[in-house]
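cron nightly-structures :: item 1 of 1
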Amino acid sequence: MHTAEATTRTWHELNQRRLMTEVARVRAAIAVYVASRSGHNAVEAHEPGEDLRESEVHHTAEPAALDALCVSFGLSAFERDVLLLVAGMELEAGFASACTAAQGDPRRAYPTFGLALALLPQAHWSAVLPTAPLRRWRLLEVGQGDTLMTSQLRIDERILHYLTGLSYVDERLVGLVDVIESESPHS
């Protein structure tokens, strides 16, 4: 196999493993929150990247898509976890039922700002502002609802694909920009 192809496949595999490890960490935070509300003990969420050996994380010079996105948009640790909470709905089948259990309402089988503020560490109200990165750059969308805190959050499709390592020109930009080929192994 060609070395560039091996590097690309390795980056995609590591990126996917890293993303799903981070999604699992957020899902574990939901389980801890649900258990604490019901008075049960729960296993604490594991640290990010725990499932990846250190040598695997640094195997490639390219950062994981999640890390690159967080740096590019200046996301705080809390905003990063909100993005993972919302991405989890698309990436893992059990997220809807976890959100229902955490919110105690079968009609709320989706993530909300209220849920994120209640269960994620380092929560800060400023992340909810329309001028904060998540909403300003439209990384996620706030659906219709009774209040901002209870409205459904959805990840922008382009951002979801980027996190999984798939990159393409956003259809909203077609005709407005020219594509410049990258030498990045995962383009």
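cron nightly-structures :: done
The first strand starts at residue 140 and ends at 142.
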